[in-house]
UniProtKB/TrEMBL annotation:
HAMAP family: TMP_synthase. It is found in: Plastid, Chloroplast. Keywords: ATP-binding, Chloroplast, Kinase, Magnesium, Metal-binding, Multifunctional enzyme, Nucleotide-binding, Plastid, Thiamine biosynthesis, Transferase, Transit peptide. One of its GO terms (cellular component) is chloroplast. Essential for thiamine biosynthesis. Bifunctional enzyme that catalyzes the phosphorylation of hydroxymethylpyrimidine phosphate (HMP-P) to HMP-PP and condenses 4-methyl-5-(beta-hydroxyethyl)thiazole monophosphate (THZ-P) and 2-methyl-4-amino-5-hydroxymethyl pyrimidine pyrophosphate (HMP-PP) to form thiamine monophosphate (TMP). Belongs to the thiamine-phosphate synthase family. SUPFAM superfamilies: Ribokinase-like (SSF53613), Thiamin phosphate synthase (SSF51391). One of its GO terms (molecular function) is hydroxymethylpyrimidine kinase activity. GO terms for biological process: thiamine biosynthetic process; thiamine diphosphate biosynthetic process. Its cofactor is Mg(2+). Residues 357-542 form the Thiamine phosphate synthase/TenI domain. This is Thiamine biosynthetic bifunctional enzyme TH1. The keyword Transferase applies.
Length: 544
């Protein structure tokens, strides 16, 4: 039965849950209690970002405004300044789709219009520089842009106008994708702009994202053929002024992996992922840069923002689509173009906001209530949980697999991801959305190899070092706890809110807090003041 304390929480939200099952009602109580605390968390993200970037003043708009017509939530906003691609695989069109996929608003300033398809670029018409300036002013003077991302900049004048306008309307970050040559090999910005690029734009950039050809062009034709060459290029480009350099090694010969090098002036990070063999790679550079801009706009630091996984997933997903007859096709940014009839049976791409209310099942608790795992999961989803993990420590493998399949059906039909605790074999067998592993389970790096780029991987972490390793291993999020003492997991040390904060600050991945969390203390967890706490994971508060 639901407790009196619970109902007092609910009645404060003016809702009557007496007709609901306890799990359903408890989940609703969480959602109501946390929903209001999510707004400050967005505010804190923006505040932290401003601090990270070294700006003295907070933007005075804050996270949410209250006007006569109700509250207005601040939405992360990227402005892309780039060329239009009539084939819509790259340029402005790719940027819009990538930002939409990352759930960020995207406004556009068009610098050139290209007649382009999967064969190549048939024509280019530059937008007059004055009109680029006018578009920039229209957007920046009115809308609260967080991050500007640049793509095709066809003339020195255009580059100078952008830099001048950004000095007048400063934003939190500038992402520069130094587009010079299209994937088809057509020149989009000639050598005449190189010096302006180096001298004016690069010093203002928070991150630049050249591929090997672009890095070579910026470095006067330097040969880039090995990983060592990429390290040297990143260092030399960093000397030109950008705060971070991402040299993309997709074109590196003789490499089975796609390796990018990120250099922040202090450390090199080798970002390695399996090379995805597909013709549909047109627009990957624009999309990755937009994705980075989108994550920066949400408040993530640069290292976490370099979300290669999104582009990998989209490429992997789009291998079979056939658009156009040329050698390089566009990919499916929103993962919506195929499997029309089975939309509800396909996995959605992971979003950190999925972690908001994370239900972890417990076979003993379900048994005590005499209900199946699937019934428990259904009730939790009806109550508003945003992700489910099946943690069935006592179940026989065969029964676990059957339950997992039943739960997956329910979860997919509600758009809620389903993860499996510990058992990678069960996850593969039922095609679950991912796996959650602890420090004594299969290493996340091995799990990633087994599950591929599309699946969600979570790792339990109690220390900053473990959080760093989870990121290196290719996890999507970390579970951090126990925040409070819990009876659900034996011999589990509680790290408290301070311990949680220490791990979150070190983590480049989104975090879900776990351990002893209930309706009464969930808000305190969400409000610890770090931007990457995305939600709370609970067992007994939902299922006991
Ligand atoms: C979201 C989340 N965080 C942490 C854990 C704990 O995982 P682990 O340390 O592997 O312990 P067990 O759950 O396997 O006992 C979790 N399951 N979920
Ligand atoms: C499964 C689990 N992992 C933890 C960790 O600290 O990693 S705490 C925990 C149990 C959480 O259960 P409850 O919500 O009932 O306290
Ligand atoms: Mg485990």
């Amino acid at each position: 039965m639901a407790s009196a304390a619970f109902f007092s929480t609910c009645s404060s939200a003016n809702e009557n849950y007496l007709h609901l099952t306890p799990t359903h009602a408890y989940a609703k109580g969480f959602v109501n209690n946390l929903r209001t605390s999510n707004l400050p968390s967005i505010a804190l993200r923006n505040e932290r970002f401003v601090r990270l970037r070294g700006f003295v003043a907070m933007r005075d708009e804050g996270a949410s405004k209250v006007s006569d017509d109700g509250p207005r939530m601040k939405i992360p906003h990227v402005l892309t300044v780039a060329g239009s691609d009539s084939g819509a695989g790259a340029g402005i069109q790719a940027d819009l789709k990538a930002c939409a996929a990352r759930r960020v608003y995207c406004s556009t300033v068009i610098t050139a219009v290209t007649a382009q398809n999967t064969v190549g670029v048939q024509g280019v018409s530059n937008v007059p520089e004055d009109f680029v300036a006018e578009q920039l002013k229209s957007v920046l003077s009115d809308m609260e842009v967080d991050v500007v991302k640049t793509g095709m900049l066809p003339s020195m004048g255009t580059i100078k106008i952008i830099c001048k306008t950004l000095r007048e309307f400063p934003v939190q970050a500038l992402v520069v994708d130094p587009v010079m040559v299209s994937t088809s090999g057509d020149v989009l910005a000639g050598p005449s702009i190189l010096s302006t690029f180096r001298e004016v734009l690069l010093p203002m950039a928070d991150i630049i994202t050249p591929n090997l050809k672009e890095a070579a062009a910026l470095l006067n034709g330097m040969q880039l053929e090995t990983l060592d060459d990429m390290h040297s290029a990143a260092r030399l480009l960093h000397n030109m002024g950008p705060k971070n350099v991402l040299v993309k090694g997709g074109d590196l010969p003789d490499s089975s992996d796609a390796v990018d090098i990120l250099y922040d002036g202090l450390n090199f990070y080798e970002l390695r992922s399996p090379r995805i063999r597909t013709r549909n790679t047109h627009g990957t550079g624009c999309s990755l840069a937009s994705c980075i801009a989108a994550e920066l706009a949400k408040g993530y630091p640069v290292l976490a923002a370099v979300a290669k996984r999104y582009v990998e997933t989209a490429l992997d997903y789009s291998k079979e689509i056939g658009i156009g007859n040329g050698p390089q096709g566009p990919f499916d940014h929103l993962l919506r173009l195929t499997s029309h009839s089975q939309d509800c049976h396909r996995q959605k791409p992971f979003s950190p906001s999925d972690l908001f209310l994370y239900a972890v099942t417990d076979s003993r608790m379900n048994k005590r209530w005499g209900r199946s795992i699937a019934d428990a999961v259904k009730a939790a989803i009806d109550g508003g949980v945003t992700i489910v993990q099946l943690r069935e420590k006592d179940a026989e493998t065969k029964d676990f697999l059957e339950s997992a399949k039943a739960c997956l059906k329910i979860c997919r039909s509600h758009g809620v991801p389903l993860l499996i605790n510990d058992r990678v074999d069960v996850a593969i067998a039922c095609d679950a959305d991912g796996v959650h592993v602890g420090q004594c389970d299969m290493p996340a790096r091995v799990v990633r190899t087994l599950l591929g780029p599309e699946k969600i991987i979570g790792v339990s972490c109690k220390t900053p070092e473990q959080a760093q390793q989870a990121w290196v291993d290719g996890a999507d999020y970390i579970g951090c706890g126990g925040v409070y003492p819990t009876k659900t997991k034996e011999n589990n040390t509680a790290i408290g809110l301070d311990g949680l904060k220490t791990v979150c600050v070190a983590s480049k991945l989104p975090v879900v807090a776990i351990g002893g969390i209930g309706v009464s203390n969930a808000r305190a967890v969400m409000e610890i003041g770090v931007p990457n706490v995305e939600g709370v994971a609970v067992v007994s508060a939902l299922f006991r």
